[in-house]
Amino acid sequence: MIDLYTWTTPNGRKVSILLEELGLPYTAHPININEKEQFAPEFLKISPNNKIPAIVDRDTGTSLMESGAIMLYLADKAGQLIPREGEARYRVIEWLMWQMGGVGPTLGQAHHFLRFNKGAAPYAEERFSKEAHRLYGVLDHRLAQREFVADAYSIADIAIWPWISRFEWQNVDLGQYANVERWYTSIAQRPAVQKGYDVPKKVGDIPLPRG
Ligand SMILES: N[C@@H](CCC(=O)N[C@@H](CS)C(=O)NCC(=O)O)C(=O)O
Predict the structure, then answer these.
(1) Which of 37, 39, 139, 206 is least enclosed, having the fewest CB within 10 Å?
(2) How many whole angstroms from 185 Cα to the centroid of ligand 1?
(3) Where are the alpha helices (DSSP H) in 122-177?
């Protein structure tokens, strides 16, 4: 049994979608980051960086913060959604790290400046919008010749997908990136993705591009 500490954000949904895909039993504990619950001393014991998501594996007593580390741990525990060894394993890790180091931080800043503080910092809006489009271009190119970012559907796709689900917040027209659009809409139809998207509570339907 896994305890998942989470909120309705891309980093939180990465882990709830993965848990649904793996079929691992879990209990979701909402940490309302708008109410500053991420700073509660009890939560800091398992998430010293005071951010969601975090997990505790009741089978082993292991606690983890950082969604990338959590995803590797859970996929290895279940023996699914990442190859055990060889180049194929590192290809998944490569694209997982691309999400962790590029997509997450950049699109997070795009949300901050373009959606929540529009007009406050035009230079930052331009910088993060440009970098967001560059990353969408990289993803589109990667998906031009393949169905998923690595060889098969993996934790790398699951890590990237919830960030793309906020394409409207980033002022991105998915129609500009046909391969991303195809990949995004097909993953959106997976039952585990639809279930994991609504954890710890439903706040709306999965955004879909206007066809
Ligand atoms: N690198 C971390 C980032 C986690 C993160 O930024 N979480 C956000 C929600 S998506 C959060 O908890 N924000 C609360 C805060 O910054 O106080 C991860 O991938 O787990």
Answers:
(1) 39
(2) 25
(3) 122-142, 155-164
